[in-house]
Amino acid sequence: MHLTQCLQRSLQQTPDKLVTLFGTRRHTYRQFGARVTRLAGALQGLGMAAGDRVGMLALNSDRYLEYMMGVWWGGGVLNPVNTRWSAAEIVYSLDDCDTRILLVDEQFLPLVEELRARAKRAPLFVYAGEGPAPVGLLSYEQLIAEATPVADAGRGYDDLACIMYTGGTTGFPKGVMQSHQNLWAACMPRTMDMPPIPGGVLLQVAPLFHVAGLARALIQFFAGECHALLPTFEAEEVLRIIERERVTETLLVPTMILGVLAHPRFADYDLSSLKRLTYGASPSAGAMVEQVIAALPGIELSHSYGLTEACPTVSSNLPDGHTEAARRSGRSRSVGRGGFGVLVKVVDEQGLEVPRGAVGEVIVRGPNVMQGYWNKPEESAKALRDGWLYTGDGAYMDDDGYLFIVDRLKDMIVSGGENIYSAEVENVIARHPAVALCAVIGVPHEQWGEAVHAVVVRKPGVALSEAEVRAHCREFIAGYKCPKSVEFRSELPLSGAGKILKKDLREPFWAGRQRAVN
Amino acid sequence: MHLTQCLQRSLQQTPDKLVTLFGTRRHTYRQFGARVTRLAGALQGLGMAAGDRVGMLALNSDRYLEYMMGVWWGGGVLNPVNTRWSAAEIVYSLDDCDTRILLVDEQFLPLVEELRARAKRAPLFVYAGEGPAPVGLLSYEQLIAEATPVADAGRGYDDLACIMYTGGTTGFPKGVMQSHQNLWAACMPRTMDMPPIPGGVLLQVAPLFHVAGLARALIQFFAGECHALLPTFEAEEVLRIIERERVTETLLVPTMILGVLAHPRFADYDLSSLKRLTYGASPSAGAMVEQVIAALPGIELSHSYGLTEACPTVSSNLPDGHTEAARRSGRSRSVGRGGFGVLVKVVDEQGLEVPRGAVGEVIVRGPNVMQGYWNKPEESAKALRDGWLYTGDGAYMDDDGYLFIVDRLKDMIVSGGENIYSAEVENVIARHPAVALCAVIGVPHEQWGEAVHAVVVRKPGVALSEAEVRAHCREFIAGYKCPKSVEFRSELPLSGAGKILKKDLREPFWAGRQRAVN
């Protein structure tokens, strides 16, 4: 149960098979293995000891996969940095888990000085982009060229493999501790239910810093197959690479899928190689599913539901939940059933299972469930109770074990596949001197599923514009977390106990819909 | 990583699906679950505490699968008794791991009194056969009827799941300690590479006390599919059940396959449902493979190599290693490649990997490798070195990682799929007062692969016949371990160090063959 075992196996059995396709660069497993074992040696040379964190702040590339395997091979722990975060958030997460080495690509060079200046203990920066390294940064390629390959450090099982930061209800990002076994076990259900197509090519365009992208990459490694990578989502690039690399399968969020389908040159590309499409982060993708099936007849659709704390997959709705009958019966709206090894229950506030059809909180148990939050025992104890992970998602289960997400018990917004905790945004807005009270909710949005909406009460006699609120937010948090719209009111609806009644705030936006999440 | 998790999942998702077909008896997962949770309660009522061993001495039946799941559900550990062993061997193994409860079916009732009398601490006997329990034995059906169902005891991960006895080079059976995680991980490669056919039916005719049968049953449970069971191998029964239950897949040893193919009524049965055939325990099944393909065109063949200590699978040669091209190139003679999560190497006497094509010992590492031998630290330390399991099998690996078994480094005979340690048989023969010296070797046998052959030097002036040697052996060891033939000589070839040169003894029998094992 070492995550490098799959690479060792491919090196033994299929060394001449292609593993990464990135732009015009293509590597076989043998070449990839040579780079990984040298990278592991180089990182050890830079001081990476067993269990030390190494970050990467970069868009998708073949080097991202080398980073994953190289850090593990050398005995380190990943800290894949959310590329959409503000400098403040990144610094918090690097400091929080004491990341000693940070790989950055050309996209994020502009952040380096700020990160260096603000970090409590600045990491070593390694330039892992294209072309020569800028002055003052170590060069990834030079490190690899000069390093001696090392043997696999042999970490596995309960050893930490990755710390992945996720937004926090308290306003601070939390580092989710994922062991080798957690990630191994989390990839198993999908590997069993829909093993990668032999000889196929996976398109990696969902960001690899997300657990969904990282886990899907791992599944491809488990099967010893090939990855084609795009640095970032651009609809026509997706069409182009599917045709060029004969991509057989990919994982996209609904926003990306809609972008691809709507592209004016959609019909100009040969997409006949594409057999499977997995989508996530969308309990209400009904219309999208119909569009996909109309545009790509015969494609196998699957929908996964998960969270970083479950590393990530909790349940999957497989192709048999997307048939015409399933779409008619409404089953295709389900996020599917618990995968092998994963126990899923819907419980009431006492933690007791509710009858089928009744709404409760989704709880999860299994070897895929995280070890806890880094250095946050209280938050860990809240999330993990009696061996069960409390997801904060409201759902019901039908008689066949299909899960239907209906609400979010945690105060969270999902916009374009990103989780945004209302509390985090509220904390930032509240810091503005002109704000008396505020609440942040998700409102339906055609493209993003939900959009962040702020309701603000100004302090008496003080001026504050929507643009000022948004500019203030952008200083502290990632752009995608900033309110897309701001509404000013003279008061907020409060409960008897003085709690803001978000339900009342949300109601007019969601009227006439079956769910209060999208 | 609890082996009962798959049952919990089926109970949640597919309670009305059939899980066991035995004779005219058929149970759904709901019925099976009700019996399992009551059986667990009954066993606890009989004193089974967490980690306690419960044995079963019975032919295959639906109750054998209930036993597996029921003991695990209740927190116990399996000790599946080899049904071909002598009373002396069974008593040794029951005493060795202190098995407190033993389930027996009608076939083994005649042994009960002897086991009770000879055991150091006799177990409780539970009659798990058909019809009412004989006087003096507890009744399995009555226990289930009267018990209260209990909740899953929740054992898993490194907790012991099973102690499986295997012949020992020292002459004493060794209890292989298999944890929940070991069995879980051992089933993964196969579950990934050849997931059970959805809606399919597995025929369980290979004995469930063997790790190969038990693991294959587990894989079927992992996938939530159905088992059809035959108590014992009989060629026409196999044909009949395939037709009647629309069996889709089965695991057989070559001896069984040849028996089925050669049956005079083979052509009278509709075998069109059978899609897959897995065979094991045979590095030289070339002719058999051709016969299967001629008789069952289009069938998917796979060959697995493993050992009890690896729980069991080490490598598999999948259908793509059985194509016409693979048969022409000789690749179909391979036992395949290491499965996912299992590292396999061929090493020299220093434990260093040999070049591809060179012969060495097969060593194995992974979460599937046993925890060790029960109460035998010295034997455990010999088998497990630096995290690697030394198999005692000689093999070479080709450039694509395919393993070819060429010799057995341990002094072991494989006859009809059963492992027989020469030392065990030699120890028994040597106890006969008329024997001066003896050696036991495997010789080629058309039906059984290998047959046990004894070479005996009599004490001067003492008479001893072949029949006497065989009768003497039958007193102490299972019939399949007794010599099929006995040869008397005046001396044995000895090395300079006085060691019997078994290679010289074997040579004339194996002349003209590529391997010295079958």
TrEMBL record, chains A, B:
UniProt keyword Cell membrane, yes or no: no
GO-annotated molecular function: ligase activity
UniProt KW keywords: Ligase
Residue span, AMP-dependent synthetase/ligase domain: 7-374
Superkingdom classification of source: Bacteria
AMP-binding enzyme C-terminal domain: residues covered: 424-499
Gene3D superfamilies, alphabetized: 3.30.300.30, N-terminal domain of ligase-like
CDD domains: FACL_FadD13-like
Species this chain originates from: Zestomonas insulae
Protein name per Swiss-Prot or TrEMBL: Long-chain-fatty-acid--CoA ligase
